[in-house]
Protein 1
Amino acid sequence: MNRRKLMLGGVAAAAAFAGAGVAWRQLQPHGAPVAAGGQGAALDPFWSQAFDTPDGASLTLASFSGKPLLVNFWATWCPPCIEELPLLDSFYRENKAKSWQVLGLAVDQPSAVRAWLQRKPLGFPVAMAGFSGTELSKSLGNLSGGLPFTVVFGASGQLLHRKSGKVTPEDLAQWVQLA
């Protein structure tokens, strides 16, 4: 009987260790620094993407290179997303003179985003990632694919922070200090 308890304890410890490893991996930035573009720089697949804006213009991620960038994946049908947008808009307005950029990538239907933005305009750019935005967010570490999801890139393009769930003022204050 003791041998069985010892074996079950070992299996439980191994499972706990594996779970802790997965959790640690999810909270860490993935891989080497991401190239942010510029003259002669090889673009990472993330930075080479382009999206339509709600008004139909094209927006390239490479145009955000060289300055800290907060990217927020959101949708009009996501209550926590809608709740955090005013906070992100205030953050943008307060920090754009300090070179901070904010980009909202809407994982939603263009018509819903246009209607929402007409009622509640945002000061920062919004682009239409569509439902394929879920896959893009997963490539940046959003393992569950849930919304809202936010990533922060440093001025050189490296992924510094990621957060699943609603952003808080404390998150933003910490990210500004560390970027």
Note: The first strand starts at residue 50 and ends at 52.
Protein 2
Amino acid sequence: MTATFVLVHGPFLGGWGFRRIASELERAGHTVFTPTLTGIGERSHLLGPDVGLSTHIEDITNVLVYEDLRDVILVGQTYGGMVITGVADRVPERITRLVYVNGHVPTSGRNAMGAFGGGTAGKLDDMSDNEGPRLLPPFPFEAMGIHDAADQAWVEPRLSPHPMKCLEEPIVLTRGEPRMPRAYVLGTAREDLIAFFKADPIAHFVEKARAEGFEFHEVAAGLFPMVSHPKELAAVLERIASPAR
């Protein structure tokens, strides 16, 4: 059985970062959309002081509405988890399942920065600039879990800074926690990320997902498995989509 996937990226990349996974899923007969969020990647020219989480929720909501997508498996990587949760609050009737890939699992009324643990928020704040729209520069490749030289060469010229407003803007869920099935894909090779921050930035989100009964899967990758382990992540997404699980 085939499925419709909408893959939502986190910081620094863009829809292009899912190119390898999209190819794997499309080869198996699935339909895949990989939109880029406003102000990032090929849409970086649209960055302005008002671009934040609500902008990105609107971006992906509009993809579902204007493409008239139904029974969507909506996938969010890292910060993309904030976005897909907001979209599920807007158009739940179009979504069959939410999948968080090392994703932020938000609580209504809180922002992503407030959920980071172990001083991570302070480090991100220190890393960002203070001129114009505050921007977070890309993490070192090791912290992103991208160790292969060819992968680094592919990614480096396309990286974009991430608007800090996206992490600072609280999410507001009018319907409460999403009611559709939710899955979490956890990258287990995050040692360099944890060393960089001296804490695990996504630990709170993982704990929340476990407490709320998410279906859990693991992949032996870091924070950006769509770049470093696309075949493995695509296989996990196919398992999540399979009705025979």
Note: The mean pLDDT is 95.
Protein 3
Amino acid sequence: MNVLFICSRNQWRSPTAEQVFRRYPGLNVRSAGTSRNAKKSVSHELLHWADVICVMEQKHKDRLMAEYRRLLENKPLHILDIPDDYRYMDPVLVTQLEELVPELLGLNG
């Protein structure tokens, strides 16, 4: 399963998610940001690659839908509701991701 994690600048939240889930069996993960200033920006190629998309906030979904609606029509898109309050690999952020994401992806066997 190819999972794309998206936040604003691809600086703290989505790279943390990418790092946390990089070693999960059966997952290929990448991260990107919706901002023009993102370290790695969302692209048609990344969205096409992804089987599932996880965004940190509603505003990220809104921006994706405004720019890429047709590409996203048949893809699961989950809003994690994780605010921009954390730095890279913040233990609280890691815990939230570990509690939310596996269940959303159906990984809790």
Note: Helices lie at 13-21, 44-49, 58-72, 91-104.
